[in-house]
Design brief:
145 residues, coenzyme F420 binding, six-stranded antiparallel barrel, single chain, alpha+beta
């Protein structure tokens, strides 16, 4: 991992912890918007530790589903939350303090461009993130269940 990516990873972890704490302490009233987009908290199980982790993510709705980008803030490695959900796709998404059990899956190729465009409309930084990494940023569908 490059020095830039290590610094971004540190800042992302610090910011995520603060964001989760703010949302939880306010009952979901604060921390539900970031850079013009809607934020959800995804709670997932660590694939090796078995511990529970919570990560704030920008999202768009697609019917009853939430769609998020595994951008990792422009760091050129898959985010831990996505690796964890690939190992165990069951999690809990919280929006405005309301939890919903969800199952995570990669977005189907047929839906990818439409959903990427919807995310870009909310958070134009995703194009910058995609340009700064060598991997294709995964789009993840969180479906109730």
């Amino acid at each position: 991992m490059s020095r830039r990516d290590r610094v971004l990873t540190f800042l992302n972890k610090f910011g995520a912890k603060y964001h989760v704490a703010l949302s939880r302490r306010s009952g979901g009233r604060l921390g539900n918007r970031f850079r013009g987009g809607d934020v959800l908290l995804i709670t997932h199980r660590g694939r090796t530790s078995g511990r529970s982790y919570t990560t704030p993510l920008l999202h768009v709705r697609d019917g009853d589903d939430f769609v998020v980008a595994a951008s990792n803030g422009g760091v050129d490695v898959e985010p831990q939350w996505w690796l964890n959900l690939q190992a165990d796709p069951h999690g809990v998404a919280e929006v405005h303090g309301r939890p919903t059990a969800v199952v995570a899956n990669a977005v189907a190729e047929a839906d990818r461009q439409r959903l990427w465009d919807a995310l870009m409309a909310k958070c134009p930084n995703y194009d910058k993130y995609q340009a700064s990494v060598s991997r294709r940023i995964a789009l993840v569908r969180l479906s109730p269940g």
